[in-house]
Each structure stands twice: as structure tokens, then as C-alpha cells.
UniProtKB/TrEMBL annotation:
It comes from the Bacteria. It is an enzyme of class 1 (oxidoreductase). The lineage of its organism: Bacteria, Pseudomonadati, Thermodesulfobacteriota, Desulfobacteria, Desulfobacterales. Keywords: Iron, Iron-sulfur, Magnesium, Metal-binding, Oxidoreductase, Thiamine pyrophosphate. One of its GO terms (biological process) is small molecule metabolic process. Residues 202-264 form the Pyruvate ferredoxin oxidoreductase beta subunit C-terminal domain. GO terms for molecular function: 2-oxoglutarate synthase activity; iron-sulfur cluster binding; metal ion binding; thiamine pyrophosphate binding. This is KorB3: 2-oxoglutarate synthase, subunit B.
Length: 268
């Protein structure tokens, strides 16, 4: 029997409490549509989040979810995937959650190649706590914690994920849910750790950097679909194209963690 799957069924009856105009609406829309197009059963999806406006995401998806501690979506999602390999597991985190307090988890989930899909809601600011600088806030940007300008050099999430050895590294844009949906689908289908940075505005606390206007004017399609693993091209694109969207790197040959465990436990 063909199962009828509509993308609205993934939408929770609890309406998102994000500010009107927040980019996160576009992200969950892309997520619903990716799940629908892959015909994932709601009961087979788990979304694990940390703390932040992005941390509320599981509440708005009509499936299983886990709103954990600040910076801890990756280890909880890892444990879940190791216990239930059959489930589709998303880990979601904001830039502060993923790269600040939780930054120590990223190298390990990447090097182990845990088969989960990680969505970095990158608005380059702490949204929930009212606009402090985060690890991706640009140098000199004025924020509530740095009213005369951020003194710190921002991290480049794509370069980090590449350097840590993530087997799938991509960037999408909240203002293009169709394009983002395609990237998320690829991330779900990828057998290994999928890292997806999503450019998105915080319309309430960022009036000068990652605004809708700025994003609309600068986001471009990189047209790089690197089937062959090519770290050098990917690194160069990450360095030169801060608003370029697409798949920067994918290693389809590398076994994921559970495949490695099966290999090590083989009976020969
Ligand atoms: C251990 C701990 N430290 C600090 C906080 C306060 N806090 C909550 S969310 C947050 C940052 C959120 O920023 P980000 O991860 O970028 O998420 P966004 O709100 O932008 O989605 C901070 C510092 C906390 N909840 N727990
Ligand atoms: S504070 Fe910013 S990130 Fe949080 S819901 Fe509002 S617009 Fe979105
Ligand atoms: Mg943020």
C-alpha cells in the first residue's frame, strides 16, 4: 500500500513562537518538505536540539524530539543514533550552541562519521539571550555585548567542518527553502556525518549584518557539486564565498561509524 505523505503532517499543531520574519520558519519549512519527499515516517524521525531560539525546533516538528542542554545536541543525537540505527536523526544548533559552548563536540562527531544530519542555524548572533556576539559574528559588528564593535575574528563553519573531517559539508539559505530542502535531502541520504550550515537572519537583534536585504543581495549558488572529494577546492570556496550555497564536499566511500563497528566485530 502506498503511504500518503503530505508535508503538513510534519508540522506540529504548536505554532512556532519565533519572531515574525525570523529565518527559522524557512528552515523548518525546508525540513518538512525534505521529510515528505523522502517519505519518512513521522515516528522514525527524531530532532535533537540544544538551547537557543533554534533549540525550540523539535517542538514545531510533528515527530519525536529532544530539547537538551546548551551545546549538547550532538552528543545526545550520537547516543540516540548508536542505540537506534533505524531512525533518521537530526541534530540542530545555533551558532552559539554549536560553535561556542558546544564547539568541542563537532570534531568528534565528524571524525567518527556518525550517521546523523546536523543543521547549523547560523544567524551569527545569540538570538534567545538578546543579541550578544557569537562565534560567527563578524569583526566590528555592534552587538548588545559589544556596543562599539565585536573585537573577535569569526569562525568559518564550513572550513571548520572540512578540517575536522566531516564527510558531507554544505551550506544553504533560509530564504530559499526549495534549495535548502534539496541540500537537507542529500544530507539525510548521505551515509555518514552531514554538516549543513544555514545562513539565516535574526530580524530582531541584527539590523546591520545578516539581514534579509544583505542575504538576498549576496547569496549565490556555488554550482559546486563535488562528487569527488576535493578538499582544496572546497576550502578555497569556503574562504572566498561567504554567501555561496551548495555542497562543498562529500565522501561517499567512507564508512560511517556503525559500519566500522560491524567491520571490527566481524567473525573471520
Ligand atoms: C550553560 C548555559 N550557558 C548559557 C546559557 C544562556 N544561553 C541560552 S541560549 C544562548 C545562546 C543562543 O545563541 P545561538 O546558539 O546562536 O542560538 P539562537 O538563539 O541564535 O538560535 C545562551 C548563551 C544557557 N542556557 N546555558
Ligand atoms: S530573536 Fe532572532 S533568532 Fe530568535 S526568534 Fe527572534 S528573530 Fe529568530
Ligand atoms: Mg544564533
Amino acid at each position: 500500500m502506498v503511504r500518503k505523505v503530505d508535508f503538513l503532517q510534519y508540522r506540529s499543531p504548536d505554532l512556532p513562537t519565533w519572531c515574525p520574519g525570523c529565518g527559522y520558519f524557512g528552515i523548518v519549512d525546508a525540513l518538512y518538505r525534505a521529510c515528505r519527499e523522502l517519505a519518512l515516517k513521522q515516528e522514525d524521525i527524531v530532532t535533537v536540539s540544544g538551547i537557543g531560539c533554534s533549540g525550540r525546533t523539535p517542538i514545531f516538528i510533528n515527530s519525536y524530539g529532544f530539547h537538551t542542554l546548551h551545546g549538547r545536541s550532538i552528543p545526545v543525537a550520537t547516543g540516540l543514533k548508536l542505540a537506534r540505527e533505524d531512525l533518521t536523526v537530526f541534530a540542530v544548533a545555533g551558532d552559539g550552541d554549536a560553535l561556542g559552548i558546544g564547539g568541542g563536540h563537532l570534531p568528534h562527531v565528524a571524525r567518527k562519521n556518525i550517521n546523523i544530519t546536523f543543521l547549523l542555524f547560523d544567524n551569527s548572533i545569540y538570538g534567545l539571550t538578546k543579541g550578544q556576539s557569537s562565534s560567527t559574528t563578524p569583526y566590528e559588528m555592534r552587538t548588545s555585548s559589544h556596543p562599539v564593535g565585536n573585537p573577535d575574528t569569526p569562525l568559518n563553519p564550513i572550513k571548520l567542518a572540512l578540517a575536522y573531517g566531516a564527510s558531507f559539508v554544505a551550506r544553504g539559505y533560509a530564504g530559499n527553502p526549495q534549495g535548502l530542502k534539496e541540500i537537507i535531502k542529500e544530507g539525510i541520504l548521505h551515509q555518514g556525518f552531514s554538516f549543513i550550515q544555514i545562513l539565516t537572519p535574526c530580524v530582531t537583534f541584527d539590523k546591520e549584518n545578516r539581514t534579509w536585504k544583505n542575504l538576498k543581495e549576496n547569496v549565490c549558488d556555488l554550482n559546486i557539486r563535488i562528487e569527488e572529494k576535493n578538499m582544496e577546492t572546497a576550502m578555497r570556496a569556503a574562504e572566498n564565498e561567504p554567501y555561496g550555497c551548495g555542497i562543498f564536499f562529500q565522501d561517499k566511500q567512507r564508512p560511517h561509524y556503525q559500519e566500522i563497528l560491524r567491520h571490527l566485530n566481524r567473525d573471520d
